[in-house]
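Supplementary Methods, section 5.1.

A reviewer requested that the exact input to the structure prediction be made available. We therefore reproduce it here, unchanged from the version used in the analyses.
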Amino acid sequence: MRCPFCNYHDSRVVDSRSVDDGASIRRRRECPDCGRRFTTYEKYEETPLVVNKKDGRRELFDSKKLLNGLIKAFEKRPISYEKIKEMADHIERELRMRGESEVRSEVIGELVMKHLEKTDQIAYVRFASVYRQFADVNNFMQELQRIINNNENKERSDANHENP
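The structure derived from this sequence is encoded token-by-token as follows.
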């Protein structure tokens, strides 16, 4: 790699470390000509993921947009930024593991809702109210009732497993 200081045509690696949970490598390099050190990052090249929107438009997947949507859903909730970022990364990994170069926006929305419902029901309802475009309070109440029923079923199931 060319030295950014003196433009010498080569450099040597003095240290390499894995970063971002193994998704990239941080390398410390030294120029044999001027002796200065600099840092480079090596990351595998991902194929672009195209999102097919409801209105027929297509756009590149934007992980920042996903993260911002999650941050908005978790606003004023006791969930750390690190946990939200981890969730966004997990959702993106799930999308990429499908092995498809295009994904419908509905698939992303449902995946987000699945993760939100498991993590924080208030954040889930916030996201669902926008995503599902509840027409009125009755739609909102139906979704809340579904969550309540799921919680009651889960509690019964957990109690049955504790008391065989």
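The beta strands are 12-19, 24-30, 37-43, 50-52, 58-60, 102-104. These observations are discussed further in the main text.
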